[in-house]
Amino acid sequence: MADNDDYYYGEGIMDPLGTAPEVTYNWVDITKDFFENIKDLELGELLHDGHLFGLFEAMSAIEMMDPKMDAGMACNRGNPKPLNFQQAVECGKLKIDDLEPSELIGIIDATMACVVSWLEGHSLAQTVFTNLYLHQPHLIKNKPLKAYCIAVYKLLDCIRDCINKAQVFEEEDFLPMCYGYRLGSSPQYGNYDTSLDLSEQKFIAMLREQEEELNKKAKISDSEMAEAWVGLAARIRFTRMFYQALQLITKRDGVSGADCVALLNGCSEMMKVIIRTSGKGTQPVENSDAPNPMGFEPMMNQRLLPPTFPRYTRIKARPEALQYFDEMVTRLRHAWKITSCTNFHTALDFFMEFSRQRACILSRSALQLLYLSPSPAAMTTMGPGPAHRIFMDILRDSIKSFVNPPALAKLPPGTTPPAREFIDKFLSRCVRPFAAFLQVCGHNRARQRDKLAMLLDEFAGLEEEAESVDAVISATMGTPARACFGTWVLYHVLRVMIAYLLSGLELELYSVHEYHYIFWYLYEFLYGWLVSALGRAEGLSGEAKRSEKKSGSRKLKKRARPSAREGLMCQVLQSMCGGYYKALVAFKLQGKIRQPQCEFDNEAVRYKHRFAPLAVLTPPQVHYHEFCEMTRPLQHENPIILYLGGCKHFQQARNLLETITTPDQEVLDLLKVAKTNFIVLKLLADGHKSDSSTPPDFDFSVHRHFPIIKLV
């Protein structure tokens, strides 16, 4: 591993190549001149010297002797020099044999906490590789610990490979750099003993062997020790099964499905034992930066880091880290269900729902790899090929199930008329934006908003192409114009638009005095257009089925409308937005919402900024002057009438939600919000707190987009 390099000592110090020539430095003390010259600078002012020293240089400068910025200060605070693996073993601070079960459990649990800290965005050098045992695992004599440390290397390599393939991480999510440490079995430097590499089969066999040995010890030990041996065996078994499951996820073949689910189920069972026995291991010393008393040096790799890197990393607490692993396994098990989604619309809904859970970077990456091979991110960059054609077929089936255009149903497979060529070119053009849509769903929620705005630009060109394809197909087939492909694209455009606006509510980007035009836009236009698009798609699909029936096709069984529930939910959300809009206008008329001062505010500019990404698309953006004209009548309405109108909207949403026979958590949350807001607006309409100017509170704890209105 890292310490096997002839020129690497495990603490960021490279072996000198030879005797350096003696250098004489002529230091000049400028302290007095420095303080004399900065007297003219006020607090917060920066020095600017033409092209030599500007804002960039000032922001990049390192304040010497500042522990937060000067890397040397973090290493030289009077602490003893960190010991590497060999030094720690020689001085007796690191045991490599005859370890007690409690010590092994403590080391493994601390390593798991370090892995979690790495997955939360910290560097490998400051987390996992503060474990000295990982620097020379092949020199460890204790067999369970040796097997575990080798497995950690393999596991880290598998995790990094999965995340790198999916490409849904940002700098705050994940740091893929290894800082010179080798992961897996791919040596990075020339001086490397390849005989130390273990194949996957060998190291899996090594882990199995240790599981059996530990279970044997548990059977012949007393109850207290047996529990510790069982806990240790569970940790080894979990590591093996988790690694094997990740390997199957990255391979993603139909044969491995049952095996992967079985492995993840086994991981969940092992996590129960691990959490139960977490108290059997050695615990971190209070007020210590090390996650375990033995085997960890927090400052070990400090000098490997760049000078402007964050100096301090707090390792995740063990109970939280173990809970993190348990939840991650559950999410991976849930992510595997994407393999049963045969329809693109169903898969897209799954992606968006999975994203709302704020899953970790590994489970988000696994979901990307499970649906498309190699990944949606790769689809956005690769040219025509087998994977490209597979995704084209997925989109083709999606269009069939959504609008069932005659051009995809009637033409014989062996012919290549202009209509089919146009469709193939259009589908090929669709691959990039639709794959990007799936990729965006894999990013963290904060980053999705900016990426949705960029995605709208991609769809803008696609709308024009869809209209052209519809026109060419109608002319070629001699049929009346049908906007089949245009409706399909419009449906997804509207979903992106709605997701973009709602993300601002979830991320708390809007001020309360901006809520009214956000909910107005959703109520009057986006949800209305989406309901209309679903209705048009259903009509087009029905026409195609009737024409097939007339042409002599066999009689088809009447099936439930696939978009019925989605259309119902769109009507629910449209009514909810209408209720919020009218309530907010009433609050504004009664002076219950604080408004920005006129000299510092321009509502037209704010409105334009909020809806700017929507300007490039069809349907056309509703401009501010149109918004003012359309909402002017309500600005002079009686607030009581507006409250009653809001009540009506929330009641309508409630009635629609109660017709759903199998409500999920989303429906139950919306139902709670609708009921509560109905009661609140009813009280306000009856004159409750009519004289109060205290602003209402908008509570997003129940639902991320639609708050409960609370009167303070």
TrEMBL record:
Signal peptide residue numbers: none
Protein name (Swiss-Prot/TrEMBL): Protein MAK10 homolog
Pfam families named in the record: Mak10, TPR_NAA35
PANTHER family tied to this protein: GLUCOSE REPRESSIBLE PROTEIN MAK10, N-ALPHA-ACETYLTRANSFERASE 35, NATC AUXILIARY SUBUNIT
Start and end residues of each NAA35-like N-terminal domain: 52-139
First-listed, main subcellular location of the protein, grouped into a coarse class: cytoplasm
Protein localization: Cytoplasm
Keyword Metal-binding: no
Assigned protein family: Belongs to the MAK10 family.
Record-linked InterPro entries: NAA35-like_N (IPR057983), Naa35_N (IPR007244), TPR_NAA35 (IPR057982)
All copies of domain NAA35-like TPR repeats, residue ranges: 335-709
